[in-house]
Amino acid sequence: MRKIRYGMVGGGPGAFIGAVHRMAANLDGELELVAGAFSADAAKSAAQGAELGLDPGRVYASYTEMAAAEAALPGDERIEVVSIVTPNHLHFPVARAFLQAGIHVVCDKPLTTTIVDAEALVAMAVERDLLFCVTHNYTGYPMVKEARERIGAGAIGELRKVIVEYSQGWLSTLLEAEGQKQAEWRADPARAGISSALGDIGSHGHNLVEYVTGRRVTRVFGDLGTVVPGRTLEDDATVLLRMEGELRGVLLVSQIAQGERNHLRLRVYGSEGGIDWVQESPNRLRVTRPDGSEEILWRGGALSDSAAAHTRIPAGHPEGFIEAFANLYRNVARTLRARSEGREPSVTDLDFPGVEDGARGVRFIDAAVRSATLDGWVEMSEVGGG
Amino acid sequence: MRKIRYGMVGGGPGAFIGAVHRMAANLDGELELVAGAFSADAAKSAAQGAELGLDPGRVYASYTEMAAAEAALPGDERIEVVSIVTPNHLHFPVARAFLQAGIHVVCDKPLTTTIVDAEALVAMAVERDLLFCVTHNYTGYPMVKEARERIGAGAIGELRKVIVEYSQGWLSTLLEAEGQKQAEWRADPARAGISSALGDIGSHGHNLVEYVTGRRVTRVFGDLGTVVPGRTLEDDATVLLRMEGELRGVLLVSQIAQGERNHLRLRVYGSEGGIDWVQESPNRLRVTRPDGSEEILWRGGALSDSAAAHTRIPAGHPEGFIEAFANLYRNVARTLRARSEGREPSVTDLDFPGVEDGARGVRFIDAAVRSATLDGWVEMSEVGGG
Amino acid sequence: MRKIRYGMVGGGPGAFIGAVHRMAANLDGELELVAGAFSADAAKSAAQGAELGLDPGRVYASYTEMAAAEAALPGDERIEVVSIVTPNHLHFPVARAFLQAGIHVVCDKPLTTTIVDAEALVAMAVERDLLFCVTHNYTGYPMVKEARERIGAGAIGELRKVIVEYSQGWLSTLLEAEGQKQAEWRADPARAGISSALGDIGSHGHNLVEYVTGRRVTRVFGDLGTVVPGRTLEDDATVLLRMEGELRGVLLVSQIAQGERNHLRLRVYGSEGGIDWVQESPNRLRVTRPDGSEEILWRGGALSDSAAAHTRIPAGHPEGFIEAFANLYRNVARTLRARSEGREPSVTDLDFPGVEDGARGVRFIDAAVRSATLDGWVEMSEVGGG
Amino acid sequence: MRKIRYGMVGGGPGAFIGAVHRMAANLDGELELVAGAFSADAAKSAAQGAELGLDPGRVYASYTEMAAAEAALPGDERIEVVSIVTPNHLHFPVARAFLQAGIHVVCDKPLTTTIVDAEALVAMAVERDLLFCVTHNYTGYPMVKEARERIGAGAIGELRKVIVEYSQGWLSTLLEAEGQKQAEWRADPARAGISSALGDIGSHGHNLVEYVTGRRVTRVFGDLGTVVPGRTLEDDATVLLRMEGELRGVLLVSQIAQGERNHLRLRVYGSEGGIDWVQESPNRLRVTRPDGSEEILWRGGALSDSAAAHTRIPAGHPEGFIEAFANLYRNVARTLRARSEGREPSVTDLDFPGVEDGARGVRFIDAAVRSATLDGWVEMSEVGGG
């Protein structure tokens, strides 16, 4: 098995998500980090590269330099895929630069800060036939896949109601004014875009509910609020949803649910039962039944092929966030390996969120913000989606 | 200690809620059932009276007969309070009849099916100085009282967000067409009023959130849906809320959340922490804290005076729904006993939902339904509330 | 329906368990308290009687006086059954007095403090054909009955292992030296008997495991310890068990598991699955399955006739300790009513722990204590049981 | 940062634990797999090496060949540490071979199948000053470290009681007769040693309780049983414990707790509170308090330095089994790197179970088996421990 060579943009000293991407890529031993532009500060980038044991010649001070230099390397040396883990506003220019260089992309979410940019990336990726994964990582959890499989197979009957909630409390104070790096850029429209809570976590909820139900959001009513005084963007939102087939839904997000860590919970109720998944206990899937009893399914048990293919260890030995995230990287690596060997990737290999999913997330944020401004329902088709 | 004499209207053979009211009244041995009009069917009423060991002379075939007959009895024989456990549309005429007869009232919720009726009862109760309890029973749980006390004392800081959910699955099929008695009248506008889910369980959620926060709902946006084909009234609703002080909130109710039993959950987040209470595990109160740790408080532990005053047995021996319900009856009994003895009832004695609370619930239902019709926000003040 | 007249011995001001018995007897309205000797202190007894609204003529200063006076009343006036809620050492003389007076008995556990006394009560009850219920109340929970039904029906296959644990923390300090009444008598061999933890809560565990499995304990190895300095009786014990059919088991009890409230948990594993019940969440029964998934059953759902017959309200509205306790009283009342009407009581009516169950509990305590002294296994047959 | 070079013995196609060790070593990017003898079958070993992308010249057909060949390589090429993931009976000869070759060792548990062999390895490792890690991996969980820190700091007062349970159901049938590889060797005394349940999972329980309390087991009483007909070794055991300071304890293990996955739970009760940790929800630590309330601590929160140093991602994003396992590998790697750079390893670097811990586990198994044979308590000092 050949390891896939990848590079990283962002993820310098102290960045949370860059380290997560690297662990996710490490876990299965199917990728190898060989290059990076870890910071716009050359010294910091170099320090990070050294810490990671990289060849200093492939540690760059900027993504433009990196894209150019890597593209100039022989095909069996240069990175095959780049991982973009910068603040939101850089996703677009960085992704564009690497796509232009013919390099595949893994990009953090939200894909971009505007619909126009998102659509440009979709077009470029399609045109150049480059793989583009957006790390809506929660769909990498095996029990999320189990939920999707069951719903797809009709196990809970006709779908009737979805509730997706992602509540956090970490922005309960004006943390962005205290120099906390993560809070700072997320609260700054210039770097985060038009939204904070919806962009950062609402887009995950949106992706999760579309993935599991197999239906798209068609209409939204957004009730957005900025609760902490002094803050610019919304830190709390409830979005009423309609999905294909007039499926009713609600998405709740908050960054001011004081004390909550990452309370992401998805429920889907159908005519014959329901599913209930909570990210903080991800190895477990609760299935409700018409007689009021419940079934608790556990990762590693007798589950669907899809869940099994994204599971590494037996039931009762918990897997977590990194393993779910690693499923995206592993599938990207296998898809690239299949392509490089002239094979067709398997359905499992291709099971990761793509650029179109990412673009729909951007449209969703836009529609919810627009709805809040208009104080009325907005059709996704009005913002290019649906 | 003298037992308070009470009578019952409704609660004949097979009625769920009547039996609950009787057990609640029995539990503490502070009330005694001495009369009843248990059914509009005289034979059924008599049978129920016999089953309960009542004097046949005080088992009536109609509430009008009962009100008249009881009023004619000597003061130390006639019922002091009547318990009304009929379908919704009868609450008003029955309550009016007993108020006119000078008899105190305990009435199931929603108080009435129209705002006009609700306001008439408020006026009558006030004018005649009669006690009127509406059985929004969930506020009888000790841990709900603990939540209220803590919030009132500032334990979670400034309030920022409430989420109250009451999800059931029992109306996932068109049960009302199958002759199920409970479903039948709740689905019939002539008996249930303008709402099903909101009237039956949404009014509980509304009362709970007002009780615990000490704030009133001021503005609503209702998204109501009728999911099961063939049904007349809504069986699913999300209501966006604003409460006094521009407190943001959401109320979710459903009768088609297939497999859910009585998933009533209340969360209130403040600047310094949050509280989380789930009715199906009522002895437990989860308190979230800014550092992401949690405190789990248990009924019977070292809690507020209010929680302690509504608790019967030590921590670790669970109390449930009936005990919470009994707290309403016990407090009503003690208030009546105090009044009959010329004493001032204590704050604890008076801690039960009154006719004004019930009326606000009716206005809330009206406002939510109106909002859904208008597809816009409705101020509670527009419907007589706020 | 005629109410059964009962009297109470013990349960004066401040006594926890007397109040529980009264609420349990009140709940269903099938019994009526008409007499009592609530305290050996005549004034306290009278005060308690007044508080309960009893006829002062039937409030006694001693149980001997009460037994004599009640026996002298006409058959349709005197108490039909007495409830004994005194400290352990009085169970025997009180029960004997009432049995001699021809009055049925409900007695708290452990039945007596010696095997000889227990066997004397068994003999008297049998000889006089008097009903004798010992309040091993945990078997009154509907989900415990569901577990027994399932196991009896072979749902988990051949039984292989039982684990029963009852951990409390309330005696983590030398509470008995601080004048706490409950702790005081339980720690005093003259009143509690030869055991504290095993007598108070181990006897419940023993009863529960025998009830649910339908098998008797045949052999024990007791590891008893007195952890808190200054204490006389054991406050912590592990008892290795063998039950009929060489079923392996363990019983763990503690009064020094600091912070635990009433952590009573029963698990039974068989060849085809297992059951897991936790008293602090009593409405729920976890069923384990060979594939590692679980089923969660809820009281009020689609359960066995036995569970359903001991359930009052629908699933999702929790019942608790008092309701379970009330199941014993209700069944005793119905059995007595059937007998008084010349009918055969139903299987459900007879489903309460009897004097033989209580006697086996006493023998179990004795065998475990003896085993600890001998530091070896003790056969139940050596202490008259098995 | 230089990657530590490691090799592996065992872990060929289909082996569960070998893959876990490799993922654990991969996660943090601090080690690199460069050699292996993955199977006694040369073709299988080669296939596994190819699958892992190893240089075929360093994939061996036997561990003896591997030890010799690696020892002959230059110091900056040969493996620095070997990971032994074979069935139990090979741990000793393989470890001995690599220690003799001057190569550090990571070895799966139990260390050996006899005390003599265990002591020989202890002596060799000490004499040659070679690092020797035994993968009692559960102590790698951050919340286990938090428990140890709190207990060490006196947070729960004087220790009074420990309960450790590891229940599995996977051997509820005679799986070893059906050709299931994992079951086969564990059930075969020639490969597993004198014990099945105690050796496989009881040794983990023993290590966990000693690690968290900081005390050693001093005395045991073992109640071992072979429940499934046709089986040779015990599949269920309860071991009564005494630890230093006469601390009372119980260890429960089972492989026939039908339906349980890996129910490993540790509780320690002290005079001021208790801790409760469950491996299937490893990010959570329940702390009981004298007033009956509880505190729930979460990995990633405001915890001890030790917990924080073994945590990779924020609270609310779960870590699992692989991350805990990776903590052992990471610490071994850091210790080796420090040694190779002439630095003193930090306390954190050295926080992994050593050969002495492994040897104590072997003695514990021996003592428990001996106790069951003698039907009496056995002092650890009698088997060379204590």
Description of the molecule:
4 copies of one chain form a homotetramer. The first copy, chain A, is globular and about 65 Å long. Chain A has a 9-stranded mixed sheet. A 5-stranded parallel sheet of chain A has the order 2-1-3-4-5, sandwiched between helices. Chain A has 2 domains: 4-130, Rossmann fold; 140-311 and 359-383, Dihydrodipicolinate Reductase, domain 2, CATH 3.30.360. In chain A, a hairpin with a 5-residue loop joins strand 11 (274-278) and strand 12 (284-288). With 386 residues, the first copy, chain A, is α/β, with parallel strands linked by helices. Chain A has 12 helices and 14 strands.
How do the helices and strands line up, and which of them pair or pack?
Four copies of one chain form a homotetramer.
Chain A: E1 4-10, H1 16-27, E2 31-37, H2 42-51, H3 63-71, E3 81-85, H4 88-100, E4 104-107, H5 115-128, E5 132-134, H6 142-152, E6 159-167, H7 181-186, H8 189-192, H9 197-213, E7 217-225, E8 236-243, E9 247-254, E10 263-270, E11 274-278, E12 284-288, E13 294-298, H10 305-309, H11 321-340, H12 355-374, E14 378-379
